[in-house]
Amino acid sequence: MKLQQVQQGHEVPHPASAPIDKDRELAAVQRSLLQHADEPGALLPILHDVQDALGYIPAHTVPAIADALNLSRAEVHGVVTYYHHFRAEPAGRHVIQICRAEACQSMGADALLAHAELRLGCSAHGTSKDGAFTLEPAFCLGLCASSPAMTFDDQPHARMTPRAFDALIAQDNNP
Known about the structure:
Layout lengths: L2 H5 L14 H15 L6 H12 L7 H8 L3 H10 L11 E6 L2 H5 L2 H12 L5 E2 L5 E6 L11 E3 L2 E3 L4 H12 L2
Helix pairs in contact: 2-3, 4-5
């Protein structure tokens, strides 16, 4: 990848809206490496940049990141898979997180998650067949007093019920 292409700042489309373009993905990595590679502890800022630009950390970009930071691919992969914020596959157009912490479980989060899995047709850590929704467990969204809680595209929703969940999903189908 030529440095001039990287510095031009090509925009990378959301993965759900465009076919995978490895050159664009590597360009996003290169832009972040140019910005952060010489910083101490650069791995996390680089991964955040790539995640923000692409929506996930493509596996084929891990060697480039590892080489630039003089890390092993296993070290980079370990960080990507350890932190729940990072994903190795593109998410759906909407990301739903349902809290799995104790307070939410005690107020019905298990039933809410089971309902969401049935309604979306995918399990936790999965994406619906139409690519519209990714369902993820979260471990404490900070809404313990208003449980069960969930987020829809990073927007918090408290005191959720299966009926409220259905209404929220229906809003996406009727913009």
